[in-house]
Amino acid sequence: MTGEGEPPIDAALAAVSVADLERLAEQRMTPEAWDYVSGGAEDELTLADNVAAFRRRRFLPRVLVGGGATDTRTTLLGREVALPIGIAPVAAQALAHPDGELATARAAAGAAALFCLSTVSSRSLEEVAAAAPDGPRWFQLYVNEDARFTRRLVERAEAAGYGAIVLTVDLPVLGYREREKRRGWELDVPLGNFREPGGAAAAGDAARGDAERGGEVDLDRLLDTRHIGLTWQGLATLRDWTPLPIVLKGILHPEDARLAVEHGAAAVWVSNHGGRQLDRSPAALDALEAVVAAVGGRAEVYLDGGVRRGSDALMAIALGAQAVFTGRPFVHALGAGGQPAVEQVIAILRDELERAMALLGVATLADVRREHVLPGA
Ligand SMILES: Cc1cc2nc3c(=O)[nH]c(=O)nc-3n(C[C@H](O)[C@H](O)[C@H](O)COP(=O)(O)O)c2cc1C
């Protein structure tokens, strides 16, 4: 929730970096919302390392390659996007701004960037699709103990034009987020997808009681999937439910990447959930190259965690990612100034990426290679 009324957007539009918008968000979001979005698990070692890993790497630029325009377009599962930087699924975005996911989805669509909607979004997947009908969009799935409800979610996403199901696999149980514990705060806000489009309660057993009283769900219960025992075999069930491509989000181990491909995943999304799950997981960037090698070109590979500059995106692409996603920068922008600020953060990242490409001596993303990274760095 932002402060008094609509936040002024002047300072947000004067921001020249993701860090500027982050500082503004800290002033403008409630302390609870700020801590929820910004925090990580336990000692926040992985949270910090995600950013530090990008800072450790160095480029090895080429010169005298001509000065043509840079082209940041790429394709994600066959669909062209203007940028290799997508918006990661982040829960309950109404915490940052009343427009929530409608604002982020509209800003992404305006820039032809990919938007990934969380299962636990503030606005329903149908509302988000209607707000940005032409934007490329994927749906992130949390498997619920109520299999019928989970299946309905997948069918609804398919019907509403979402182009892929992103199954998050690094959350068998919620990570231990101390900032929230200290405040005695829990995420118990209305969640759009737990009502059917007609208004009837649609939540699974764990959530139904609360959902009938207004769409609020017990997230701890909802997301705790230890008793379901999600396994690789479960992927086959998901594939029976939908012809949509399946992306596995939350892969760090190269062996899991190999299994993902063997079980039919169209893409592997290297992520430690922004340092919010297992603290002491490796930085996403440090896990990337081994995953790329294990996948061996048989599926697309994405990365999120710690991307704060256009040059970070370029570094991940040089190390083998097809694209990156970023979470907090967009939600911080949303909290700092709503949709115009999200548009601003996309413009900043695009500008930084184009400049970094020109300075690195590459005209297209296909030209970016491992040789553009300093060995051993
Ligand atoms: C406040 C918050 C809520 C999140 N909610 C979800 C979610 O609902 N589903 C999911 O798969 N990932 C979720 N994530 C993880 C993001 O998709 C992404 O992996 C992470 O934010 C990337 O790190 P970054 O914030 O450093 O860019 C969330 C992250 C944050 C910060």
Please, could you describe this protein's structure?
By secondary structure, this protein is of the alpha/beta class. It is built from 15 helices and 10 strands. The strands form 2 sheets. Strands 3-10-9-8-7-6-5-4 form an 8-stranded parallel β-sheet. Strands 1-2 form a two-stranded antiparallel ribbon. The protein has a single domain (10-372), classed as Aldolase class I (TIM Barrel, Alpha-Beta Barrel), CATH 3.20.20.70. The chain has helices at 10-13, 18-28, 31-38, 45-56, 101-110, 125-131, 147-159, 178-183, 205-212, 219-223, 232-241, 254-262, 284-295, 310-318, 328-360; strands at residues 74-76, 79-81, 85-87, 115-117, 137-141, 165-168, 246-251, 267-270, 300-304, 323-326. The model is unreliable at 204-214 (pLDDT under 50). The chain binds flavin mononucleotide.
Rg from alpha-carbon coordinates: 20 Å
CATH class designation: Alpha Beta
Q: Report the span from N to C terminus.
A: 41 Å
Q: What topology, given as strand order, has the largest sheet?
A: 3-10-9-8-7-6-5-4
Q: What is the CATH fold-level name? A: TIM Barrel
Mean pLDDT: 91
Helical proportion, percent range: 40-55%
Considering the protein shown, what is the CATH homologous superfamily? Aldolase class I
CATH architecture classification name: Alpha-Beta Barrel
Strand tally: 10
Q: Oligomeric status of the shown chains?
A: single chain
Instruction: Name the beta content range.
Output: 5-15%
* SS-based class: alpha/beta
Poorly predicted tracts of residues: 204-214
Number of structurally distinct domains: 1
Counting H and I runs of at least 4 residues, what is the number of helices? 15
Would you list the SSEs in sequence order as H and E?
HHHHEEEHEHEHEHHHHEHEHEHEH
Tell the overall outline.
globular
Strand count, sense and barrel status of the largest sheet are:
8 strands, parallel
Unique ligands: flavin mononucleotide
